[in-house]
Design a protein that fits this description.
This protein is of the alpha/beta class. It is 39% helix and 20% strand. The strands form 2 sheets. A 7-stranded mixed β-sheet has the order 7-8-9-11-10-12-13, sandwiched between helices. It has a 6-stranded mixed β-sheet with strand order 4-3-5-2-1-6, with helices on both faces. The longest helix has 15 residues.
Amino acid sequence: MTANPSKTRPHRSIGRTVADLRRGLAVALIDGDGSVAVARAAEDLTDVGLSELRDLAQSTNAPHFGFIITARRAEVLHIPPKSNAISLRIRNDDKAANLAVLADPTGDLTHPMRGPFARNEAPNLALTEAAVKLCKLARLLPSAVVVSSGPETADALLFWVRNNDVLVAQVTDINDFPEAEARALTEVTSAKVPMEGAENSRIVAFRPADGGVEHLAIIVGDPPRNQPVLTRLHSECFTGDLLGSLKCDCGDQLRGSLRLMGEAGGGVLCYLAQEGRGIGLINKLRAYDLQDQGFDTVDANERLGFESDERLFEPAARMLHLLGFSQVRLLTNNPDKVEGLAAADIEVVERVAHHFPPNAHNEHYLATKRRRSGHLL
């Protein structure tokens, strides 16, 4: 028996696999060489699920049964990282709660004496890295429990996957998914929505192929397509945009950019479904908890196991192209946005500074973005 790739379309396959992972179910990953892995997210792991994976590893003689964390999380736990995904040995007496706590850094200071940790190297590193990436796509903590086999011993795992109706995702599809989703964005609908400071405006909704959360473009006025358009890329921020949180400057930037576009007679604001610099709202709240413990915004994301910024700017470029714009005057303090649009064939003819006075709650946050992330503040 050989590995049988999923017959579903990549977008459908990954979207459904992500949904199962968020529900606490097991999912399967297949690499191009025929290696197979079965994974569960550490965040939603139960003792029953852990026991099932342990029994699966024993009954199939799988060469690998491990707890997977990212290199960023490994550094926090003082484990020298050798790759982007590190596999740790799971002890016989480990419970699901032990592993879930190890994946979540918000309790690190309460339980500082952790370890020692023993590595348990996987036969196929691509599978473990893909398992972590799938957790990120699910907006979960980037950590999983994985049973895996190389191509020579994958038959028993595949038999279990098929008999238990476990969804399968290809490693290449997981790795290509974010960019592929951006390329496949399609316009769904639009409506006029007068806004404070920009009454002549409309919202255009763009849906990804997996049916996930929509990205939005707010078009102020009727900017000509043959001239550079005043543009802002704004990642959604529930706490700042909607609730008026003082921990960031997102609300000021959102409303300020719309006001500037209204005064200029036109512009485009790309409102991106990338909460918390791409880690999701729940993980952003975890990052806020870590900031309250004394870590800055960069360290907080990295302690969670993410990169300091997980965003992609291809969705914004795709929306701009679909709207007929190829040149922008970009309202930003972030050089990465300039580079990201340029890499996606949007010409940034000018960077327009866009910052606001700090308050007592976000002063350190803004200073960190300037000092550690290179923002031009």
